[in-house]
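User: Here's a chain of 181 residues. Predict its fold as tokens.
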Amino acid sequence: NLLAFLPAAVLGATLHGPITSALFNPWVVCIALILGGIAIIVIERWGREPTIRSVPQMGPLAALLIGFGQALAMIPGTSRSGATIITALLVGVERRTAAEFSFVLAIPTMCAATAYSLYKARADLDLSGLGQIGIGFAAAFVVALVVVRWVLAVIGRIGFAPFGWYRIGLGSVMLAWLALR
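Assistant: Prediction complete.
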């Protein structure tokens, strides 16, 4: 859905520089990991009853709100898929459908982010490694298809809470390490 893609595209193109200069540091990553984990657990436990059970049932407002959730992923340490899934759960999308929509939404988002990065680094690029990049892209695509299918099955059975606890644990360990350095 184009509406879900637009907020991240517009905000990313507009705010890339300020976000990069202000937020790209390990402390922000740690805090975002922990807060994201807490949000996942809270929303998974006390979220609203789903009213949207398939991607075609998703209306324009739900898609746009999920798009704004995706834009939160510009904060380092925020999972793009986590942000879109959490937002989808908040607007009443069923868990598996939220994950499915998040993975579909990743395609134009990742393509646009890659194109933007390549454009910005165009002076440093040459075509000598194009074959290796193509092989890497193809391998990553095949692995992603397998992993996404598996992840959707796991999410349907156990939910998102284990991922939330993982984020809290990782963020806490990283914060402790930063504090002790």
